[in-house]
Amino acid sequence: MTTNDHAKRLQERGLRPTPQRLAVYEYLLSHRTHPTADTIYEAVLAQYPSFSRTTIYNSVKALMDAGLVRVVTIDPLEQHFDGNPADHGHCRCERCGQLLDFEMPEDLLAALVPEGFSVQQQDIFFTGVCKACQASFA
Amino acid sequence: MTTNDHAKRLQERGLRPTPQRLAVYEYLLSHRTHPTADTIYEAVLAQYPSFSRTTIYNSVKALMDAGLVRVVTIDPLEQHFDGNPADHGHCRCERCGQLLDFEMPEDLLAALVPEGFSVQQQDIFFTGVCKACQASFA
DNA sequence: TATTATATTTGTAATCAGTACAAGTTAATA
DNA sequence: TATTAACTTGTACTGATTACAAATATAATA
User: Fold this and answer.
1) Which tens digits make up the pLDDT trace of B59-89?
2) Pair A66, A12 in one domain
């Protein structure tokens, strides 16, 4: 995927592919760490010294409205963003801090939710200890 | 469950059962709506006009440290609290705003998470449309 | 019970994420 | 090029949360 492809994708959704938006989008695509607005800001500032914090929020909002980015509800105090808008769950390891994605199969989802409830968005978040960290403390 | 039982429960966990803590705890037990700090504050103010916002945060933190209360990660901008510390999921209906709890069976949980990951805390949150609201728009 | 030490509550001030808004800039169109 | 609309920027503001110090209440001890 080149920057051109990304620009095209924004245009298809009615978004002007400005350098700032592309920088935010590409940061989210290449860093699957679900960063906060401020983390994105610090990173893109290196390329665009005039980048404004407000532009981070504006860009992220535009990308979310276009369905390319989503908020992940994994923190009760700060918004974290994800460049993968498809539904999926997250696990965070308390020891190494790593964030793992996983799939949420349709049938499991259906088995979980109250009967008749139609799910539109998922936020599934587990905290625990990953395999590697368990091994290293055995 | 009487207030005395609740007081005893706090004491067992090493918490002094002050009137303020009991008011916060009992509000959370009797209102399963996962309120914010401010919602709790408004409610308890009626009984204790001198109640301070800071005391809400202090009490909730003490109760959380004691394992009696937890934060539910259903909102990236504000903390919501739950008097049920047991693991369970939440569904919010976009139309009527209702928040439904549901169980998360062990075997489903195991099937979901990456192999070897040991889950310590769950935050499962679905947004969608509940059965009643679907019916009323049919 | 009186005294002392400790824990808790309170109110104010500070912090920090996010938003509103207006002015400046860029890009698109005629 | 002139005009218009979209976007970015910086500043000011809001609102949730935390820090802190003084006041109060509780528990422990004599």
Assistant:
1) 999 999 999 999 999 999 999 999 999 989 9
2) yes
List b or e across B32-46, with b for residues whose CB sees 16 or more CB atoms inside 10 angstroms. eebbbbebbbebbee
Interface of B with A in 79-138 (CB under 8 A): 79-80, 89, 91, 93-94, 100, 102, 104, 108, 111-131, 134
Structural domain for A117, as ranges: 89-136
- The structural domain count of chain B equals 2
**B78 shares a domain with B55:** yes
For B91, residues 6+ apart whose C-beta sits below 8 A from its C-beta are: A113, A114, A117, A119, B99, B100, B102, B125, B126, B127, B128, B130
CATH number of A24's domain: 1.10.10.10
Record the pTM: 0.91
Question: What CATH number should be reported for the domain holding residue A105?
Answer: 3.30.1490.190
- The residue written with tokens 């400005």 in the block is A18
| In the block, residue with structure tokens 């966990």 | B13
Chain B residues close to A100, C-beta within 8 Å: 114, 117
